[in-house]
Amino acid sequence: MTEAPAPRAPRVPRVLVLRALGLGDLLAGVPALRALRRAHPGHELVLAGPEELAPVAAATGAVDRLLPASAPGRAVPRALDWTGPPPDVAVDLHGNGPPSHRLLMGLRPRRLLAFAHPRTPEVDGPPWYAEEHERDRWCRLLTWYGIDADPTDLLLPRPPGPSPAPGAVVLHPGAGAPSRRWPVERYAAVAGALRERGRRVVVTGGTDEADLVARLAELAGLPATDVFGGGLPHDRLSALVAGARAVVSGDTGIAHLAAAHAAPSVTLFGPVPPRRWGPPAHPRHRVLWHPGPDGDPHGREPDPALLRITVEEVLGELRALDALDGPAPLDPPASRPPEPAHTPAEAP
What is the mean predicted confidence (pLDDT) over 199-220? Predict the structure, then answer.
């Protein structure tokens, strides 16, 4: 008697989300990812993004698996290592097309959620607004398709491990492009003033920013124990940020991490105004920006608007943060509330 074949396990439907960008981009997409998770509770949610962001994706509570995908700059990956049946749902959180549209359409998903673009008329999505805040943008996309999304749903759970420098002020001089890097000499001046007041100051940097971190540490006279260059693992960086007295940086990933952990922060904006990429409007998140024409967020020189931010302005915002937990300072600065941020449109 021939034995009956074992029954096949039912196929698990899958949602594929493309956001093959950096840390700040992923964190700005957390509200949309969580909305997709709620809308598809029985699906496997796969995020196509840089492999090194897998711990961040897991911390969102929305992503089941990361599919490694990246390209230089903010380009669209040439291909995705997708196996098995086509995605049941594909979601373009990378840009407004057409390259990202075509990449996902090539996988023949049953349904594609994306912004409209004249060069991909088969995508029947909402219009793209260049000036829209980044978190709002992706939530509006999903809402257009009937998925409730809350742009304020961005907080990450507190890291389980201890901070390597609890209560320190974290200075992060790096950014993805020189146009968003405030001069390291000014960071050193901020560090010196804080240390004179008895504050512990630590400096962080990415894997390719060792020279920048070393320069700041040298100028500020920081001990080796307070220098975290070379890219901290995500769990330690998250613990450091979550336990910080304040995080001072340009418009880059660590600023979004501070917002995700509700850590006090001072973010310095230059080529791109805070209304596109700024933190949530809250007294613990301070922004500095001198209004003017938009610059190039990927430029090779510090943006003129960024250079107009002074050391005293940064120290003033840090004093304002101190005042949230104690008596008012003698000279409270006039604080600019964060504005409502921007993924550059893709090249055709």
Answer: 95
Tell me the residue length of the chain: 348
212: left (phi over 0), alpha (psi -120 to 50) or beta: alpha
The stretches of 208-286 forming alpha helices (DSSP H) are 210-220, 234-242, 253-260, 274-277
- Asked whether 276 and 131 are in contact (CB, 8 A), the reply is yes
Q: Which two tokens stand for residue 262?
A: 């509700």
27-65 pLDDT per residue, tens: 999 999 999 999 999 999 999 999 999 999 999 999 999
- Tokens of residue 343, six digits: 């993924």
Q: What are phi and psi of 52, to 5 degrees?
A: -70, -10
Query: CB count, 10 Å around CB of 338?
Result: 23
| pLDDT for 329 beyond 80 | no
Please provide the average confidence, as pLDDT, over all residues in the chain: 91
Over residues 181-194, mean pLDDT: 98
Rounded to the nearest angstrom, the gap between the alpha carbon of residue 219 and the centroid of all alpha carbons in its chain is: 28
Q: Is residue 319 within a helix (H) or strand (E), and if so which, with residue range?
A: helix 311-323
330-171-254 Cα angle (round to 5): 115
Higher-pLDDT residue of 336 and 42 is 42
The two most distant CA atoms of the chain are separated, in Å, by 92
Report pLDDT for 4. 57
Helix H or strand E encompassing 135 = helix 134-144
* Residues 287/279, Cβ–Cβ less than 8 Å: yes
What's the predicted TM-score (pTM) here? 0.89
Give the Cα separation of 348 and 346 in Å (integer).
Answer: 6
Question: Rounded CA gap, 15 and 285, in Å?
Answer: 34
